[in-house]
Amino acid sequence: MSKTKDFLFELCSSPFVSGSEYKNGQVLKKYFSEYTDNFEQDNLGSYIFKSTGSNGKKIMLAAHIDEIGLMVTDILDNGFLSFTTVGGINPASLIAQDVVVCGKENVRGVIGIKPPHITSAEEMKKASKISELYIDIGMSKDNAKKIVSIGDVATINRQAQLLENDMVTCKSLDNKSGVAVMYKVAKELSKIGHKSDVYYTATTQEEVGLRGARTSSYKINPDIAIIVDVGFGSTPELPSNTMKMGKGGGICLGANFNPKLNKKLIEVAKEYNYDYQLEIAPAGSGTDAIAIQVTQTGVPCLLISIPLRYMHTSVEVISMNDVKSIGSLIARFINEIDNSDLEEITCF
Q: Which pLDDT value is given to residue 70?
């Protein structure tokens, strides 16, 4: 496997549930340190890796590292764990899942459901509720309390797998695939060079309110920002204009994004024959770009989306070809940007 794919697979096996991103930061440091010369964190724990350029300008790359998950709300008398969700999750996607509870030590468990043999036809028609689900860790209440506490987080236990045509499936590809794109950018820029200081920022708490993007962008105060996140990838039930898998990233158009930046990015994509698609978000994008755009006196933003199927489930699917293509496009874009470009972009 390529180093970018190795990195993505290692990220996917490391929990980064929103609010608990501090637990596995060594994975990020292990890979990004090779291509950067400075590391720091803001007070919400976002990971900021800097590669110094020569012109004093600042380009921020942002991809959120946090993932949706679960949080223990009670340890029941029979040892089962009740829970709530961290971020947006359809309860139906949790049924019959294998999970890991991050307590004093990691504990395996499963989320069960009443067998169909003893489920009435009326019950079958009803949507499952989080309050009706529980995690079975196979322990008594007394033993469970020695390891698990109320407030501990849990995540679906699923390892990344390769599908055909260099597709990858796993949980939390939203947005660890975006962090993998940033890593690809860092690798490419180490070869072709860059004039501006580049800040590779793995932001925290995006899934619960874009919080790490606010604090990290305030700390960096960039001249421009490039956000990488996922967007909806085509499946049979979605409209025909949904982004196609393996056809490049989606360049997002709308009020959240700087039109001059978008124009320059599209010019670079055409000049170097990188595939790209267009996404439309007239008002806002629901991504870190919303928070970063209004940092301090305002930051011109770009958003490039990775097509992803089955968002916020344990079987999300992306194309590694898209990850590599987007990373190469962003690297070439940064390589092409100079002071005159940045002055033109920020001049109204």
A: 98
Cα(211)–Cα(291) distance, integer angstroms? 8
Q: Phi first, then psi: what are they for 297, rounded to 5°?
A: -90, 10
> Torsions phi, psi of 211, nearest 5?
-75, -45
Residues 316 and 280 in one domain: yes
- 206 catalytic, yes or no? yes
Asked if residue 234 belongs to a domain, the reply is yes
Asked whether residue 105 is domain-assigned, the answer is yes
Say if residue 125 is in the same domain as residue 191: no
Q: Show Cβ contacts of residue 214 under 8 Å, excluding neighbours closer than 6 positions.
A: 291, 292, 295
Does pTM top 0.85 for this prediction?
yes
Backbone phi, psi, residue 86, to 5°: -110, 105
Q: 224 with 336, same domain?
A: yes
* Full residue range of the structural domain in which residue 241 is found: 3-67+171-345
- pLDDT-flagged residues of the chain (< 50): none
Structure tokens of 47?
């990971």
**How many CA atoms, within 13 angstroms, populate the side-chain half-sphere of residue 217?**
31
Q: How far apart are CA 49 and CA 161, in angstroms?
A: 28
Q: Does a structural domain hold residue 44? A: yes
Query: For position 174, what pLDDT does the model report?
Result: 98
Given a contact cutoff of 8 angstroms between Cβ atoms, the answer to whether 264 and 257 are in contact is no
Domain identity same for 273 and 198 = yes
Q: Could you say which of 21, 67, 188, 206 is catalytic?
A: 206
**Residue labelled with tokens 């987007």:** 326
- What pLDDT does 1 receive? 59
What is the pLDDT, as a whole number, of residue 301?
97
Task: Tell whether 213 and 305 lie within a shared domain.
Answer: yes
Domains of the chain: total? 2
d(CA 92, CA 76): 22
